[in-house]
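Hi support team,

I'm opening this ticket because the web form for multi-chain structure prediction keeps timing out on my end. I have pasted the exact lines I submitted so you can reproduce it. The total is 497 residues across two entries, so I didn't expect it to be a heavy job. Is there a limit I'm missing, or should I split the entries? Thanks in advance, R.K.
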Amino acid sequence: MDFFVESFHTAFGLIAAGDPDVMNAVTVSIVVSFWSTLFAALAGIPAGVVIGVADFPGKRGMVTLLNTLMALPTVVVGLFVYSLISRQGPFGAYGLLFTPEAMVIGQTVLAVPIMANFTLSAIKGADPRIVPTALTLGAGPFGSICRLTIELRFGIMAAVIAGFGRVIAEVGVAMMLGGNIRGYTRTMTTAIAMETGKGEFALGLALGLILMTVALVVNLFLNLLQQR
Amino acid sequence: MHTTTRLLLALTILLALCAGAGAEERLKMSTTTSTQDSGLLRVLLPPFEKENHCKVDVIAVGTGQAIKLGEAGDVDVVFVHARKMEDKFVADGYGVNRRDVMYNDFVVIGPKDDPAGVAKAKTAAEALKMIAAKQATFISRGDKSGTHIKEKELWQAAGAEPKGNWYVDAGQGMGPVITMATERQGYTLADRGTYNAFKGQKTNLVILFQGEKGLFNPYGVIAVNPRKFPHVKYDLAMRFVDFVTGPEGQRIIAGYKAHGEPVFFIYKK
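Hello R.K., no limit was hit. The queue was backed up. Here is the completed structure from your submission:
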C-alpha cells in the first residue's frame, strides 16, 4: 500500500515541481504521437474508406489482412523499420535511427491498420443509402464519398483516438527506434521501462500516472472537437 | 469549425517548432547501462556538450549490443566494458583509438544467510563452483553484456556447467537482474556501481565475494572507424575520447559518488 501512496506522492511532486526530465518526456511523447497519428490518419482513413466502399476481388482477404495487422507486436514493427533505417539498411544514408523521426515512422506503421480498420467498421455500420442518395442529389462519386466521410465523423474520430492511444502507450517501437536518449527520444513509456529497470518502481508508476493524465487531457480535447 | 481549424493549425506550428529545435551537432554514443544508470553520464556529459556546442545522444544497452551498433555504423563512439570484445572490434577494423577510461570491479552478491557458503571461497571461480554444487539459485544476465561475458569466463574457470532449474537465464539488464535475484533470494554477479545504487532500499542481498584480480572491470572508449563509415562524426568522437581520458573528464569520474561512495576509479598515471 505504501508503494501506491508513494507513487501518487511522487507523481504529484514531479508535476508540481515541473521536473525538466518529466516535462521533456511528456513533450516528446506528445509530439511524436501527434505526428504519427496525423500521418497514420492521412493514410489509414482513406484506405479504410476505399476498402469499405469499393468492391474488388480479394476484398475479404484484404480485410483479414487488416485485422491481422492490428495484432502486430510493436517490437516486430520496431525491428522491421530498424532493418530499413540502420546504416546497414537500404535507407541508412539518411541517419534516421535513434531520432524522433524514426519513432514517427515506426508508430505510423503501427497505427495505420488500426485507423483503417476502425474506419472500415464505421462504413460497414453506416446507412447504406448515404452514397446512392448523394449521387441522386447530384454529387459526383468523389463528392458522395466525402459526404459519407462527413456522416461518419464520429466513427472516424474513434479511429483517430484508438490510433493515438496505441502509439502514445507503446514502448517497443519507441525504445528500439528512438533509443531512449535523454531529452531527445525519451518518451514517457521508455522512461517508465528504464526506471523500472533501475528498481525505481514508485517513480515508474508515478510516470505512468502522469501518462494517463496526459492521455486524459488529449482525449478531452478531442472530445471537444467532436462536439462542434 | 473556424476556431477549431485555427486551433489545430496553431498546435501544428507549435509542434513543428518543438520538433525542429535540435539544430546543434549530435554525437551518438552507445554505452552500457551501468554508465547511465549509475548517474555518471549526467555529470560527465554536460561540460563536454557545453565546450563543444553539441549534444551527446546516449544509447544505453548491453556491451554486446553497444559494440554491434558500432559495427553497423549506427553510432559514432562506443563506451563499454568487455576488453576482449573491444580488442576484436578494433582488430576487425570497426573501431580506432581505443583508450582506457576507468575501472571498477564485479562482486558476487547473494542472500545474507549464504546457503552455498560462498563467503568462504578463495576465488570467484570457486564461489561459482560452490553455487553450482549446492544448486543454489543463480540469476544470469544472459544478454551478452560485459557482465554476462565475465560471468561466462568465471564458469569456464570454475569448470562447472551452469545448467538446471537453479540457473536462471534472465536476458535482462543489471537492475532487473538484481531485482529478480532479490525476489528469488538467489546469487548473481553484479558490477559494483549498479549494486551500490541498489543496496539498502532496493535489495537486501549482500556482497559475499569480492576483491579478486579476476573481477577487475575495465571500461574503454573507442571511436568508430571513419574509413569504414565515412558518415561518422570522427572529429567530435575523438574530442569526446580526449575529454573523458583528459584531466577534466578524469577529475569528474574520480570525484563522482553515488550514495556517498565512489563508483568508478581512474588509472594513476
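A quick check on our side: Chain B touches chain A at residues 1, 4, 11, 15, 18-19, 22, 26, 28, 33, 37, 55, 57-60, 72-74, 172-173, 175-176, 178-179, 197-198, 202-203, 229, 231 (CB under 8 Å). Let us know if the file doesn't open in your viewer.
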